[in-house]
Amino acid sequence: MMDYIASLSRCRRWGAQGGKSSAYFFKTFDERFIVKQVTKTELDSFEQFASKYFKHLEDSFSSGNPTCLAKVVGVYQVGVKSVKGGREWKIDFILMENLFFSRKISRVYDLKGSLRSRYNPDTSGDNKVLLDLNLLEALSTKPIFVGSRAKKRLERAVWNDTSFLASIGVMDYSLLVGIDDEKKELVIGIIDYMRQYTWDKQLETWVKAAGILGGPKNTSPTVISPMQYKRRFRKAMSQYFLPVPDECSP
């Protein structure tokens, strides 16, 4: 507990890449945790399914069924007071595990299983977050190979977690993938699962499907119903990682 408090006592601003929101991100100085600002809508949504979320994690740990959800370890509200004028306001944050803690990650992908607006043209420099189309583009030269047993375990984890997320009406999540070349390992976790499929998301689905916000009409939108999202996500994640016999894997 003291280590946890010590981690939270010092944080620094962090410019997270890959997301579309304007939320503030922070990292604890020891890099164990990531702190993300959440909207009231996101907080209300999480509060509605929090008990089911922790039950899902408990069941996974007790049964040995794999899960790849990036863990939420705390929810906090911070009060802020302006020195000039004395205005006060409150900001909500969630505290998550840092999947890449103590890792040397050479490539990072944020994958949704969609092709609409899923390409990052700026691939230069460190810590660039690449998207689905970047991965597909790289498959001919830098495919991601995994051993057969690891591939099956990954698919089981994705299957378990997407079944749970669909059951609570959550969609638009991503699989965050980090490639650790030094250890020849993949570090993965499902992130951005705070929002449920509410009326505003249904409207966004219709607008994107109609091509009003750009992109071809025959390309599946990123925002679809939780059940549709689950099926598309599972299919894509199964295709993105290429299995090899275990004796050939690192």
TrEMBL record:
Q: Where is the PIPK domain?
A: 1-241
A Pfam family name for this chain? PIP5K
PROSITE patterns cross-referenced by the UniProt entry: PIPK
Superkingdom of origin:
Eukaryota
* InterPro entries recorded: PIKfyve_PIPKc, PInositol-4-P-4/5-kinase_C_sf, PInositol-4-P-4/5-kinase_core, PInositol-4-P-5-kinase_N
Q: Which GO terms describe its biological process?
A: phosphatidylinositol phosphate biosynthetic process
Give the CC-aspect GO terms. Answer: endosome membrane
What does the UniProt keyword field contain?
Answer: ATP-binding, Kinase, Nucleotide-binding, Transferase
Q: Does the keyword Transferase apply?
A: yes
> Which SUPFAM superfamilies does the record cross-reference, listed alphabetically?
SAICAR synthase-like (SSF56104)
**One annotated GO molecular function:** 1-phosphatidylinositol-3-phosphate 5-kinase activity
UniProt cross-references to PANTHER family, sorted A to Z:
1-PHOSPHATIDYLINOSITOL 3-PHOSPHATE 5-KINASE-RELATED, 1-PHOSPHATIDYLINOSITOL-3-PHOSPHATE 5-KINASE FAB1C-RELATED
**Name used for this protein in its record:** PIPK domain-containing protein
Species the sequence originates in: Ananas comosus var. bracteatus (red pineapple)
